[in-house]
C-alpha cells in the first residue's frame, strides 16, 4: 500500500470543472442519509470485540479490531512509511517531516463534516479505523510502539514535528493529554516540537492552557471553511454536525492568548464555495492576530458528502497560495491587492520583479503548515499528496524544481495587474 493511493480521482470533467473558480452555488454537499441502528456508534466493532494485534492496516474486508486512544492512535501512510511501520514509497519524497497522529475510537468522530472521509455518516459504509482521510488510509499503531521507535532514533529522527489530531469524541480532550504525556515522557519536545490540531467543540480555555503547560508548542484550529455561512453548510447544521463558527473562534482566540504570537493558526480549505477575496481576508485577519494560516486545496474525498463535486481549479488555488504567502511572510496586505467582480486576485500589490522572485523561490507553492527546522516558511507538516494526486500536485511536499515552476506559472493564468 502506498501513501500516494488515490481516494477518488481529481474532478476533471465534472460539472463546473471548466470554471476558473468553485462558486458557492456549485458546491452544495449531499444531505446525509440515515444510519441503520446496527451501525451506529461503532456497534459492529464493539459487539465483535476483536482484540487488536499490534499494528492494524486498514482493511474493509475483515472485522476491525476494537482499538481506542490513548493506547492506540492512527497515523498517516506517509508517517507509517517514514517510521518503518509499513512498506511503501512516496513519489519524489524520501520521507515526511511530521509525525501526524490521529485519535481513534470504535465510535469514531461524532461530527459530520461534509468534505471529510472520517465523518459520522460513513458508519454504515466503513468502520472508523478503515476510513480514508485526506486521500489516504491511516494505520492504527500502539502509542507505546511509536514512542519507543522515535525515542530510540534520537538525533537521527527524520521528524521535525509531531502533531496530535483530535476528533469530536467525549474522550478526545483527556486522551490528547494522555498521548502528549506519553510522548514527552520519552521524547524531548525541544527536539521534536508538538503541535495540537484541536477540536474546539469539546474544549474550554483551561484545556488549551493544559496542553501548553504539558509542552505543546503550537495550537491550531481547523476552521476549514472561510466564512460563517460556508462553515454552517459544511460543518454545522447544514450536515447535522455539532460544530459552530463562534465556538471555533472562541478557542482560536484563547490559543492566541495562551500560546502567543506565531504559535497558533488555522486550517483553511480553498475552493469549497468562498471567493478568493473572502479567504484572503481571513488569512489577513489571522496574521493581524499574530497567527498563521495553513491552506488545503479542496479535493473530493471518496465517501464524503462532497465527493461528487469538482476539485479546486489549479488557477484559483495558485492565486490564493501566492497571495497567502505574500500576506503571511512578505508583509503584503490584502487591501494592497486587487480583485475582479468574482473576487479573484488580479493584482498582488508588488512590482512584477518582486512577484517573479517569489514564484522562482517556489516556497509559496509548498504545503503550508506548522514550521520545521529548515526555515520558518517551510512546513514540517508536508502531507504528501493529501490534497491532490501526484499527477497534478496542489501542495508540493518538496521544493518545486524548474519544470514544476514552469507548470505553476502556466497555472497562474488570469492576467495580473501588477503594483
Specify Rg, calculated over alpha carbons.
20 Å
How far from one another are the termini? 48 Å
Sheet-strand content, in percent, reads: 5-15%
Helix/strand order: HEHEEHEHEHEHHEHEHEEHH
Helical residue percent?
25-40%
Number of helices: 11
Low-confidence stretches: 1-18, 414-419
Biggest beta sheet summary: 8 strands, mixed
Supply the helix-strand structural class: alpha/beta
Total strands: the figure is 10
What's the mean pLDDT score? 92
- Spatially, the strands of the biggest sheet line up as 3-1-2-4-5-6-7-8
Note down, in words, how this protein is organized.
With 419 residues, this protein is α/β, with parallel strands linked by helices. It has 11 helices and 10 strands. The protein has helices spanning 43-48, 77-83, 143-153, 172-184, 205-213, 228-235, 245-259, 276-289, 314-329, 352-361, 402-411; strands spanning 72-75, 98-103, 140-142, 161-165, 194-197, 218-224, 264-270, 292-297, 338-339, 345-347. The chain has an 8-stranded mixed sheet with strand order 3-1-2-4-5-6-7-8. A two-stranded antiparallel ribbon has the order 9-10. Helix 8 (276-289) links the parallel strand 7 (264-270) and strand 8. Helix 5 runs parallel beside helix 7 and helix 8 runs parallel beside helix 9 (314-329). The longest helix has 16 residues, at 314-329. The termini are far apart. The model is unreliable at 1-18 and 414-419 (pLDDT under 50).
Comma- or semicolon-separated keywords:
disordered C terminus, 10 strands, disordered N terminus, globular, 419 residues, alpha/beta, 8-stranded mixed sheet, single chain
Amino acid at each position: 500500500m502506498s501513501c500516494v493511493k488515490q481516494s477518488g480521482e481529481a474532478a476533471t470533467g465534472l460539472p463546473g470543472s471548466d470554471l476558473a473558480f468553485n462558486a458557492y452555488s456549485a458546491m452544495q454537499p449531499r444531505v446525509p442519509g440515515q444510519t441503520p441502528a446496527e451501525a451506529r456508534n461503532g456497534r459492529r466493532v464493539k459487539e465483535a470485540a476483536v482484540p487488536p494485534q499490534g499494528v492494524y492496516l486498514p482493511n474493509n474486508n475483515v472485522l476491525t479490531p476494537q482499538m481506542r486512544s490513548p493506547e492506540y492512535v492512527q497515523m498517516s501512510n506517509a508517517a507509517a512509511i517514514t517510521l518503518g511501520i509499513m512498506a511503501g514509497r512516496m513519489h519524489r519524497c524520501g520521507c515526511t517531516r511530521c509525525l501526524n497522529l490521529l485519535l481513534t475510537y470504535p465510535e469514531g468522530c461524532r461530527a459530520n463534516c461534509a468534505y471529510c472521509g472520517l465523518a459520522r455518516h460513513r458508519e454504515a459504509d466503513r468502520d472508523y479505523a478503515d476510513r480514508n482521510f485526506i486521500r489516504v488510509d491511516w494505520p492504527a499503531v500502539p502509542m507505546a510502539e511509536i514512542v519507543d521507535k522515535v525515542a530510540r532514533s534520537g538525533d537521527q529522527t527524520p521528524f521535525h514535528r509531531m502533531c496530535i489530531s483530535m476528533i469530536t469524541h467525549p474522550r478526545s480532550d483527556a486522551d490528547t493529554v494522555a498521548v502528549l504525556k506519553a510522548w514527552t515522557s520519552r521524547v524531548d519536545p525541544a527536539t521534536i516540537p508538538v503541535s495540537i490540531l484541536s477540536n474546539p467543540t469539546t474544549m474550554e480555555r483551561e484545556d488549551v492552557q493544559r496542553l501548553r503547560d504539558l509542552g505543546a508548542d503550537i495550537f491550531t484550529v481547523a476552521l476549514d471553511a472561510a466564512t460563517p455561512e460556508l462553515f454552517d453548510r459544511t460543518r454545522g447544521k447544514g450536515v447535522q454536525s455539532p460544530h459552530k463558527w463562534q465556538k471555533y473562534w472562541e478557542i482560536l482566540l484563547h490559543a492566541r492568548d495562551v500560546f502567543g504570537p506565531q504559535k497558533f493558526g488555522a486550517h483553511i480549505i480553498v475552493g469549497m464555495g468562498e471567493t478568493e477575496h473572502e479567504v484572503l481576508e481571513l488569512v489577513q485577519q489571522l496574521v493581524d492576530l499574530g497567527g498563521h494560516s495553513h491552506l488545503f486545496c479542496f479535493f473530493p474525498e471518496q465517501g464524503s458528502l462532497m465527493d461528487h463535486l469538482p476539485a479546486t481549479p489549479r488557477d484559483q488555488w495558485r492565486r490564493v497560495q501566492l497571495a497567502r504567502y505574500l500576506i503571511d511572510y512578505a508583509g503584503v496586505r490584502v487591501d494592497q491587492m486587487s480583485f475582479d467582480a468574482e473576487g479573484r486576485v488580479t493584482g498582488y500589490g508588488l512590482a512584477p520583479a518582486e512577484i517573479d522572485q517569489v514564484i522562482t523561490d517556489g516556497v509559496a507553492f509548498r504545503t503550508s503548515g506548522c514550521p520545521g527546522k529548515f526555515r520558518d516558511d517551510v512546513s514540517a507538516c508536508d502531507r504528501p499528496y493529501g490534497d491532490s494526486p501526484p499527477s497534478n500536485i496542489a501542495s508540493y511536499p518538496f521544493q518545486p524544481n524548474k519544470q514544476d515552476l514552469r507548470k505553476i506559472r502556466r497555472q497562474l493564468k488570469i492576467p495580473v495587474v501588477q503594483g
